[in-house]
Write a structure and sequence with these properties.
The chain is an all-alpha fold. The protein is built from 18 helices and no strands. The radius of gyration is 33 Å and the shape is globular.
């Protein structure tokens, strides 16, 4: 084969062969085979879209950092990444066989307010009904929280007066079953707490669910939320504030008598209703702090005082020793059905001791979040620290209280009432007074965090209607009316603290059942996998337990009777 033949093989057919030159020893040049010189530019339009189709397709939106700070996510709107599209187009590698001029490259400049309509966020927007007003609400208007703030809020809301009646449950269950139920309830609620922390934000869509009710409605629909979720969630907010006024006001009266020594201070001491009013005024004054992040210091004080009075109560009771003639035999009802319902009522008391799940998403909403630093990491750190302290308070309180008082512990007031009733004279007045003071401070602090979801819900009605932030004077009026509305309820129904088992049964799904079903619906695990079985089992057991605990508590209330002192607090 000569050089001419080789040249004819290399050259393409449409090109007219060049005349042979005298430089036969030179290898054939490769320029003629370069597609750039062979492509008839006149016949084909200079559009590179068919060659690089990725340039005409908007970049796939997974979870850019800005989405984690959008409303219902944050102050800034969801669509704050219009420039990211240009950056994606510029980084698209060009084809080696094309030299399309830069001015012909289609630059994607989609308006910011249109972006989600063509993205996977569209379905999420329709589900959660995001709106810019979220930036004006007290839960989501500040997102500079951290793990310390989360620990303060979780500890303040997780330890409460309801823990003081834990030994009452032991009087029915006994040592063995009391410990089994207490440990099982603690592990169970800690697991569901972890589920809620993980469900707060979606790494796939960038959505943040800043409220428990919002997550429930987005998952199961507003109709299901109105039927199953809104009552227990709102009760855990407003109903807890009513109970805090009753307990805080009553403890104020006890503190006054302890410090003054009976009637030495005044011939006409304030009545119980007046103590309720004094407590309410203090709570309303403190509730004027604007948002959830602004009460982090208040929650810190509430957490310290909660740990303090729990420690004082069980240490002082154990130091005094067992009461003479104390018995640890479980209290048995006269009938078989009465015994069954008494056990279920005791389980409801234990379930009511673990509270705060209705506030976890709201607390986590105060933290910043992005792809590299999601909020669930610092939130879980704060939760682990706070629940370590909660376990160190609740378990000694239940075990030490039952060991010291046995069956004689009062059902109304629990450990606090037992300390004053049995050791009021042989315990230092300073210890008694400091314990009462810590209970009062903790009640005032807890009022703020439990009232915040109600404040947020009421203000959202205004912002949705008026399309602007709630003015300061109106915010002050709303919170004042809420506080004194709770005061009226406390005066009208002062025996609500005696219904711990019934209230625990009503609120039990929020703590133990709903998080399991939410996780199943959102994560969609493989059927019959271990996680699928665990969550279905716990969720179903939680719902069934809630129903029978409510029925048992109603039976116990009707069978044993309760002093219905309407508008007559003692």
């Amino acid at each position: 084969m000569n050089m001419g033949d080789h040249h004819s093989e290399v050259s393409s057919t449409p090109i007219t062969p060049r005349p042979m030159t005298s430089r036969l020893s030179t290898p054939p040049i490769s320029a003629p085979i370069t597609p750039r010189t062979m492509t008839p530019m006149v016949s084909t339009p200079p559009v590179s879209a068919p060659i690089t189709p990725r340039l005409t397709t908007p970049p796939i939106i997974s979870a850019p950092p800005s989405q984690f700070h959008s409303p219902s996510l944050s102050r800034s709107p969801l669509l704050s990444f219009g420039g990211d599209h240009v950056e994606q187009a510029a980084k698209t590698p060009k084809s080696r066989g094309s030299r399309t001029p830069n001015f012909l490259t289609p630059i994607i400049r989609t308006p910011r307010f249109i972006t989600p309509l063509g993205s996977p966020i569209r379905k999420a927007l329709r589900l959660t009904k995001l709106d810019p007003q979220d930036a004006w609400l007290p839960i989501t208007e500040s997102r500079n929280g951290n793990a310390y703030y989360a620990a303060f809020h979780t500890l303040s809301s997780g330890i409460g007066i309801q823990a003081l009646v834990l030994p009452v449950a032991f009087t029915i269950l006994g040592w063995t079953w009391g410990m089994i139920c207490l440990v099982a309830a603690f592990i169970w609620q800690l697991y569901t707490l972890h589920l809620l922390v993980q469900l707060h934000e979606s790494t796939e869509t960038g959505m943040r669910y800043s409220r428990y009710l919002q997550l429930f409605n987005a998952t199961f629909g507003e109709k299901m939320g109105n039927i199953f979720a809104i009552f227990p969630i709102m009760y855990l907010s407003g109903g807890t504030c009513v109970a805090l006024i009753i307990i805080g006001g009553g403890t104020m009266k006890q503190f006054y008598l302890t410090i003054c020594g009976g009637t030495a201070c005044s011939a006409n001491p304030p009545t119980t209703v007046e103590w309720y009013l004094i407590f309410t005024c203090a709570a309303v004054l403190l509730s004027q702090l604007p948002n959830l992040n602004s009460i982090a210091g208040v929650s810190l004080i509430g957490a310290i005082t909660a740990v303090g009075y729990c420690t004082f109560l069980w240490v002082a009771s154990v130091a005094q020793g067992k009461l003479p003639g104390v018995s640890y035999d479980p209290i048995r009802a006269s009938t078989e059905i009465g015994r069954v319902f008494s056990v279920l009522n005791a389980i409801g008391i234990i379930a009511f001791a673990f509270r705060g799940h209705n506030l976890i998403l709201e607390i986590q909403a105060t933290m910043p979040s992005d792809e590299k630093h999601p909020s669930h990491v610092p939130m879980w750190k704060g939760v682990k620290f706070s629940y370590s302290l909660i376990a160190m308070c609740l378990f000694p309180l239940a075990i030490g209280g039952y060991w010291a008082y046995g069956q004689m512990i009062p059902e109304d007031g629990g450990m606090l009432a037992a300390l004053f009733q049995f050791h009021g004279r042989d315990t230092s007045q300073a210890i008694l007074g400091l314990t009462s003071l810590f209970v009062i401070i903790n009640a005032v602090s807890s009022f703020q965090i439990y009232g915040m979801p109600t404040f947020d819900d009421i203000e959202s009605k205004y912002t949705m209607r008026m399309r602007k932030a709630c003015p300061r004077w109106l915010r002050a009026v709303i919170r004042t009316l809420f506080g004194f509305g709770c005061f009226l309820m406390a005066v009208a129904v002062p025996f609500v603290s005696n219904l711990a088992g019934l209230i625990g049964g009503l609120a039990l799904p929020v703590t133990l059942a709903y998080p399991c079903f939410l996780w199943l619906k959102i994560k969609k695990p493989k059927m019959y996998s271990p996680r699928w079985l665990i969550n279905w089992g716990l969720g179903t057991l939680g719902m069934g337990l809630s129903a029978i605990v409510v029925a048992a508590s109603l039976y116990v209330v009707i069978d044993t009777g309760i002093h219905l002192n309407f508008f007559n607090p003692q």
